[in-house]
Amino acid sequence: MLNGLESNLDSPEGHGVSLFFAAEYSCEYGSLKFYALCGVGGVLSCGLTHTAVVPLDLVKCRMQVDPQKYKSIFNGFSVTIKEDGFRGLAKGWAPTFIGYSMQGLCKFGFYEVFKILYGNMLGEENAYLWRTSLYLAASASAEFFADIALAPMEAAKVRIQTQPGYANTLRQAVPKMFGEEGIWAFYKGVAPLWMRQIPYTMMKFACFERTVEALYKYVVPKPRSECSKGEQLIVTFVAGYIAGVFCAIVSHPADSVVSVLNKEKGSSASQVLKRLGFRGVWKGLFARIIMIGTLTALQWFIYDSVKVYFRLPRPPPPEMPESLKKKLGLTQ
Fold it and tell me: Where are the transmembrane segments (predicted)?
């Protein structure tokens, strides 16, 4: 896909097109600068949004680990404010901001890397025909590394939010956790994180990409090229919210396991899953749908806005290559 674009720009006929791209965009699609700025977009989109919803995340985690005390979203907020005041709702903001900023850097940056890499390996025609599989493979590969970056801060966050009296700040939690369990305290939740985040991210990216494609094809009354930047960002937000609802559902059982596992010492993921049972792993789903739906929409909106701000190439939804149309007899 990328190679074909480069070869066209190298030709004499493509010289004018090359100058146009140079004027419109700040860098080439697939360049190191492109990947780096996509990573910056990921830092802002994930770090800011996850930090903004820390109060809802705190209540959701407490509902998962102590459903007898925190019976619903509203009851959870009420109990938390009664015991800790309004400041208590912000517990865990520091590890949330640091951890999800690192995760966003890897998630969005590596997604662009793997999408282009796998697309070039498949070739233009197969990349179009198998585009959903391409999105799934690229996002799963990116999330594998993103979760390794997230795991230490996620472990600290859950301890701060769900164990009263354990630690109130990240500076208190980290040395205490290391003293009790060593480095394992920060990475014992990485496998459940993969269970939660890889399906979530595969849904997040594949569903988003295909929803954007469907919106421009069936809903938006004019081609993307004729839409203003603002109109394009509205489509991004809507597609992001739709993707977020599905993300929350597919990843919630593993999220429940992660919350309980990071709270308890000496438990394994399989032991926690067995103890929670089918009904137990779905506790807090409604809160998570609200949180993840809003989060995912805002993340895509911020990420796309960063691309617009830095004048990064933003390819339109994929169209069938001319060579494939000829093979299928769709052109005269």
Answer: 233-254, 285-303
* 127-166 b/e (C-beta count within 10 Å ≥ 16 → b): bbeebeebbbbbbbbbbbbbbbbbbbbbbbbbbbbbeeee
Q: Over the stretch 149-200, which tens digit does the pLDDT of each residue have?
A: 999 999 999 889 888 888 888 999 999 999 998 988 899 889 988 988 898 8
Helix intervals (H) in 215-263: 229-263
Distances (CA, A) of 42 to 132, 134, 176: 21, 20, 30
Strands (E), 187-227: none
Which residue is associated with the tokens 């066209």?
A: 8
The reported pTM is 0.80
Phi and psi at residue 168, in whole multiples of 5°? -105, -20
Higher-pLDDT residue of 92, 259: 92
pLDDT at 10: 44
| Residue 321 tokens, joined | 């290559």
Whether residue 215 has pLDDT greater than 50? yes
CB under 8 Å to 202, separation ≥6 — which residues?
135, 136, 139, 140, 143
